[in-house]
Design goal:
The chain is mainly beta. The protein has a single domain, classed as Jelly Rolls (Sandwich), CATH 2.60.120. It contains no helices and 12 strands. It starts with a strand and ends in an 11-residue tail after the last strand.
Length: 136
């Protein structure tokens, strides 16, 4: 989907605890740095839909499993991916695409490396039922 990048990430195994790479300045999808934050989602819960008008999202799931759905209302196309330690990748989402996500594991955490600082005036939220997607 145009405006979406999926990047494989390195996980370095160590007997005392693994290292999970997230993003480097030279990576595709890096569009500046505004802030980084963690968010959790309960198993079976869905957060979304949200569209950022300026922010590029860089989403990584180091704990649990989360299904992300990106929807482009301009083309009526959707893209979905499940991220976890077993499918350790970074999902980059450009501005003006709708995003929702669902917790699949018992405990789920994501990291967003956002291109700009949080600004509520640049984000639009709608109810989950306003975009037709079958969350099975």
């Amino acid at each position: 989907m145009d405006g979406v990048i999926v990047t494989s990430l390195r996980r370095i195994h160590n007997s005392q605890g693994d290292v999970f790479h997230a993003m480097k300045r030279k990576d595709d999808g890096f569009n500046g740095f505004g802030e980084a934050y963690f968010s959790t989602i309960n198993q079976g819960d869905i957060k979304g839909w949200k569209k950022h008008t300026k922010m590029t999202l860089n989403l990584v799931v180091p704990i649990g499993e989360i299904e992300f759905v990106v929807f482009d209302k301009r083309t009526n196309n959707s893209f979905s991916i499940r991220l976890s330690q077993d499918n350790y990748k970074r999902l980059t989402v450009s501005p003006n695409l709708w995003v929702a996500f669902r917790g699949l594991g018992k405990y789920n955490m994501l990291l967003n490396i956002a291109s700009i600082e949080h600004d509520p005036s640049e984000a639009i939220n709608i109810n989950i039922d306003e975009i037709d997607f079958n969350w099975v």
